[in-house]
Amino acid sequence: MDLSVINPILLIAALMSAATPILLAATGELVVERAGVLNLGVEGMMILGAICGFAIAVETGSPLTGFLAAAVGGAMLSLLFALLTQVALANQVASGLALTLFGLGLSALLGQGYVGIKPPRMPDINFGFLSDIPVVGPILFSHDPVLYFGLLLVAAVWVTLKFTRVGLILRAVGENHDAAHALGYKVVRIRTLAIMFGGACAGMGGAYISLIRVPQWTEGMTAGVGWIALALVVFASWKPWRVLLGAYLFGGITQLQLNLQGAGVAIPVEYLAMSPYIITIVVLVILSADKSAAPGSLGRTFHASH
Amino acid sequence: MKLTTLLASAAVALGLAGGAYADGHEKTKVGFVFVGPIGDGGWTYEHNKGRLAVEEALGDAVETVYVENVAEGPDSERVMTQMALDGADLIFTTSFGYMDPTINIAAKFPDVKFEHATGYKRADNVSTYSARFYEGRAIQGHIAGKMTKSNIIGYIASYPIPEVIRGINAAYIHAAKVNPDVEFKIIWAYTWFDPAKEADAARALIEQGADVVLQHTDSTAPQAAAQEAGNVVTFGQASDMGQYAPFPRVSSIIDDWAPYYIARTKAVIDGTWESTDTWDGIGPGMVGIGEISDAVPADVKEEALAMKAAIADGSYHPFTGPLKKQDGSDWLADGEVADDGTLAGMNFYVEGLTGEIPQ
Amino acid sequence: MIWLEKRPQPSRFFAYVTPLLAVFATFLFGGLLFAALGKDPVQSIVTIFWEPLFGEFAFYYRPQLLIKGAPLVLIAIGLSLGFKAGVWNIGAEGQYIMGALFGAGMGLAFYPAESVLIFPAMVLAGAFGGWIWAMIPALLKVRFGTNEILVSLMLVYVAEQLLASMSLGLLKNPEGFGFPGSRNLQQYDSAHNAEIIAGSGMHWGVVAALIAVIFAYVLLTRHRLGFAVRVTGEAPRAARFAGVNPGRLVLFCLGTSGMLAGLAGLFEVAGPAGQVSIDFNVGYGFTAIIVAFLGRLHPVGIVLAGLLMALTYIGGDIAQSQLGLPAAAIQVFQGMLLFFLLALDLFTNYRLRFGRAETV
Q1: Cβ contact (<8 Å) for A277 and C157?
Q2: Which chains touch B (3 or more CB pairs under 8 A)?
Q3: What is the pLDDT along chain B (359 residues), one digit of tens a residue?
Q4: Which CATH class, in words, describes the domain spanning A3-287?
Q5: How far is CA C132 from CA C138, C286, C304, in A?
Q6: By CB neighbour count within 10 A (0-12 exposed, 13-18 middle, 19+ buried), where does A165 fall?
Q7: Are the beta carbons of C155 and A289 closer than 8 angstroms?
Q8: Which of B10, B78, B160 sits opposite C64 (nearest CB)?
Q9: Are C320 and C330 in contact (CB under 8 A)?
Q10: Contacts of C207 (CB under 8 A, 6+ apart)
Q11: CA B184, CA B326: separation in Å to the nearest integer?
Q12: What is the CA radius of gyration of chain C?
């Protein structure tokens, strides 16, 4: 066993990249849940984003166009969810699960012609001399644009929710949709937009996996990240910066367990593999002392004639 | 058993019991039960290529059917039964977990032939087949040992089962033979398929100094991670992964089921099918070695090809003594060759590997 | 303008008609999908829905419906109690795994002794395994207020790792030549959850599912506890005034659903599946959530929903094999069916009105 082979700087850089898909998806879902809607279909929207992004990036040769397509794909699928839950007033939990099933199937159908193809590569941003700064350089200035976009997104969501009128309305709708409706806000319209935003973010998270982290297309390649993203929103008690913290924590533990194995630490592997989940639970228990509760109307169906 | 009688009478009613053609269907029907989607780019993808090869080679004489994403357990039994009821003459079940279900269903359909991949239970109408992938690992080990500069070789393993352990040993023996300083870093991913995790594992190994990464998981994620790193050598697994050639992918192990599937289907058509236990390697073509790219120095490539030829014609066995186990105890004497029983159930590392096999 | 008006009472007529409408809508859109994939739409749909029930080999597929449906119903019944009370157990998959591990472990501990007591002991161990796994989120919720959705979901992944570890370690078949997976319980008479009548598909898991359905029905309609469950879900504050102890209710709901999921796992591992293996779990715990909602959280509805899901699985596999439909198309088809079932339920609780909505 030789722990010195683990380079903490590279570890941090790696965890930032590993955490980005979860971060994107979870930030989107956070906005959805803040609007009072629980969409369990994150996994389905991510995988659809993964194939839409991949296919378009391959066809156009442009990874950025791919990411746009992924956002559109994720948003289109989430529109289906919005139709079900906002117009047809269906149960959100069941609709979300059905959405995941549908998304997995649809992505596999769309992806039939894309197995074994290598997508165009998205280059890292060139920060010039900045990336040569010791320690800070490799951690902060060695990544692809989407990773920075994820960080900006968290900041933007935080600012919007906290300081803007749009954020206030969104939160009002999430806390008490009847009151918001009485004040004249279009509850259904606002929620539909929030759901589509969440879908777009999840789609980009999926595309980050298929275009940057892996990069390839295979059926079911998101392998459950969507569920982690969902858990993360609760973990973060619906606060954007905590989503970031949680995503990095989760990504970090996963990276660390792989690194510890490589370094030959004699801890049983299966327990190491469990550790991210167990530690998440432990942190959650500690955080639950903080009583900032879920949005008041989360998961409840809204109908204007109540 | 009532069900057995029912199934048997159904089979008789359909004329299945009277032989392959008595029910009037002119084509020989071949069923394939797949554990993953045919688009997985790895294990199932290659089996499906084998299926397509059967259709191409035998044309109108055969009809193939398949069901993908079949869970091991009762679902697989149902799918096999359904294929047999629909008149399949030969059914390939392509995952280790289908072993007991295959034996169960084969007992109910004595006139249908079954072929189970990678298992060890046989019956009069159940054959088993598997590939000696360790032969390919030996060649990879040789190239890896020659090409590493840091003397650290990373290995992404899936689950600690004999198949995977055998591969690690074969690669290590041949890497250490040409480069005694070589060290193996092994990461157990505890999954066959999770591209993101495989990519992470590859990156972790590379960051810890590995400049060759071997993988026993099926996605191309480690290839991409190596390409990004720039100076890391990889090998394709399950399929050729030629899109990463000539570098980082310098060669590959390819699962090539086509020759076997064609031969066995022909045997059913000719009525010469018998229950057998097949464990084929490079020689009969079940294990393919993908083209060794020009990134490999010419002399190394020549040695690798010579080893491939020697393994193929049987003059060299990758597990030839003297070899010791990890704990220092003797395993094979000078010139002694490992027997198939030990290889099939291999649960120990050879001398020189560090770390423990997780239990 | 079209608008929706809430019905004072859910419409009984639409409660029965909408599922049929949904199935027809799925036929239509699913048919279009199959046609787009170049398959005969009518034949595809007939294969999925008719073949298993009334086709040539229905004698084989009908019992399979029970085998496939029983774990779904058993788990969904437990979940529905919690969902009614607003207790969200999303981790039934993990409890299912733990039930199988505990139950199989109990049985294998006695191998090769034969006794009629072994199977009952396994049943108890299976129920205990699921129960204890569900008690983790339950106790954390009661004691610390920790969100049970997250904890139960995380515990699924922990259980999956444990399952892999057990298949490769402690429970590995010593005569299995080093391959993963336990001994096959089907070949161990005392531990085998065999069919009660051979060929009928009726194993003890099916019996347990039926008992659970009756139990849930009686509980919800006749018992004080059932009342507490319903009130807590509909009006948590009123429930407190009615003397319901919310902590105890959480323990009861999670405990019951965990126990039933554990039982489902035990019956599966000792019967149809036969052995503990790395990929033992096939998602029943997640599908059961859909089944619970499709069944409108009503015991009888859940039975119907469970059988419908089982039918699409079985028919879907037949369609794959006979018609060459990709598994993905079947998944999309199932997704459509769920969408329509969920969406059209609208008409049970609301009525369409044409004209201008009166402003409140």
Answers
A1: yes
A2: A, C
A3: 445 555 555 554 444 443 444 445 578 999 999 998 888 878 899 999 999 999 999 989 999 999 999 998 899 999 999 999 999 999 999 999 999 999 999 999 999 999 999 888 999 999 999 999 999 999 999 999 999 999 999 999 988 888 999 999 999 999 999 999 999 999 998 887 788 889 889 999 998 999 999 999 888 889 988 988 889 999 988 888 888 888 889 999 999 999 999 999 999 999 999 999 999 999 999 999 999 999 999 999 999 999 999 999 999 999 998 999 999 999 999 999 999 989 988 989 999 998 888 87
A4: mainly alpha
A5: 10, 19, 29
A6: exposed
A7: no
A8: B78
A9: yes
A10: C196
A11: 13
A12: 22
- Report the DSSP pairing between strands C350-354 and C2-6: antiparallel
User: The whole model's pTM is what?
Assistant: 0.89
Please indicate if any CB of chain C lies within 8 Å of the CB of A281.
Answer: yes
Count CB pairs under 8 A between chains A and B.
118
SS3 per residue for chain C: CEEEEECCCCCHHHHHHHHHHHHHHHHHHHHHHHHHCCCCHHHHHHHHHCHHHHCCCHHHHHHHHHHHHHHHHHHHHHHHHHHHHCCCCCCHHHHHHHHHHHHHHHHHHCCCCCCCCHHHHHHHHHHHHHHHHHHHHHHHHHHHCCCHHHHHHHHHHHHHHHHHHHHHCCCCCCCCCCCCCCCCHHHCHHHCCCCCCCCCCCCHHHHHHHHHHHHHHHHHHHCHHHHHHHHHHHCHHHHHHCCCCHHHHHHHHHHHHHHHHHHHHHHHHHCCCCCCCCCCCCCHHHHHHHHHHHCCCCHHHHHHHHHHHHHHHHHHHHHHHHHCCCHHHHHHHHHHHHHHHHHHCHHHHEEEEECCCCCC
Beta bridge partners of B288: B254
For the record, the structure tokens of C190 come out as 């005392």
Give C117 to chain B, closest Cα distance, Å. Answer: 25
Partner residue facing A218 (CB), from B40, B191, B355: B40
- Residue A184 touches chain C, beta carbons under 8 Å: no
Question: Which candidate in B2, B30, B72 is best for mutational testing of the C interface (most C CBs within 10 A)?
Answer: B72
Q: Do C161 and A273 touch (CB under 8 A)?
A: yes
